[in-house]
Amino acid sequence: MRLLHSLNQKYRFFSICKRGLMDTVYISHGSPMMAIDESIPARKFLKTWQQIFKERPNAILVISGHWDTKEPTVNVVNRNDTIYDFYGFPKSMYKLKYTPPGAPLLAKRVKELLMANGFKRVHEDKTRGVDHGTWVPLMFMYPEADIPVCQLSVQTDRDGTYHYNLGKALAPLREEGILIMGSGATTHNLGTMQPSGSPVPSWALQFDTWLKNALLEGRYEDVNHYDSRAPYGKMAHPWPDHFYPLHVAIGAAGENAKAKLVHHSWDNGTLSYASYQFTARK
């Protein structure tokens, strides 16, 4: 009976729900310090997550800017360990634990969808847990750590269109109660960070504003080619790892998805914590 119950729990999130399609989201997780620094406004936003997004997902698929592989890879584990993929931070951060259940069947489903849509090589990592691009925001969004979590990697040697198409392949998951969450940073140039409270430089403000307008106006093709169409695209993202999760979230929501800015704040001068929700149009 225990085995049967376990199997039922694992298969629960694959049932087609009558509640409608899940939205997709992109969270700017910013600095790891958000885990302990109560002054960061985005932390307060994430703590109100369940008040804003009342629909509880059956499982969560996170595309994090902190997992970069040559080819798409999913973590296939029964329980996620906490990965401390940062250094030089206060010791208290290395004592934090967030160990949600893994989602091995969701991982298999992701692999199946990707391979059926032209991504011929998709790998499984059977040891990796959750990096801080996943556990830092989730520890505020779902502090009980009782929702199964699976991670999918990005490929920084590819482009925005590739990741948009990666998301398109995953769109059926929204019918299965899966929250598809991109986790990165709207601006991510660590070499330009300033002390907290510093003014926002013009280049960061211009890129952030361009992105907001492009998303709210549905100009997703422009976002796919942000590096050539956005002002200061390369300055905002010298390396695209933290931006590609956005493209996946957009692609998974559908071509005509409506974007909504759900949070906006700045820290360290150049770090935009802009976060977005994408709803499929009927």
Write a concise keyword list for the protein shown above.
alpha/beta; 11 helices; Protocatechuate 4,5-dioxygenase, Chain B; six-stranded mixed β-sheet; disordered N terminus
Taken in chain order, the helices and strands follow as HEHHEEHEHEHEHHHHHEEEE
What gyration radius follows from the Cα positions, in whole Å?
A: 18 Å
Task: State the separation between the terminal residues, measured CA to CA.
Answer: 42 Å
Helix-strand makeup class = alpha/beta
Number of domains: 1
Strands side by side in the biggest sheet: 5-2-6-1-10-7
Quick one: CATH superfamily? Answer: LigB-like
Shape category: globular
Residue runs with pLDDT of under 50 for 5 or more positions: 1-18
CATH first level: which class? Alpha Beta
The level of helicity is 25-40%
Number of helices: 11
Q: How much is the average pLDDT?
A: 92
The total strand number stands at 10
Strand residue content: 15-25%
What's the CATH topology label? Protocatechuate 4,5-dioxygenase, Chain B
CATH architecture: 3-Layer(aba) Sandwich
Main beta sheet, described?
6 strands, mixed
Organism: Populus trichocarpa (Western balsam poplar)
Protein name: Extradiol ring-cleavage dioxygenase class III enzyme subunit B domain-containing protein
Cofactor: Zn(2+)
GO molecular function: ferrous iron binding; oxidoreductase activity, acting on single donors with incorporation of molecular oxygen, incorporation of two atoms of oxygen; zinc ion binding
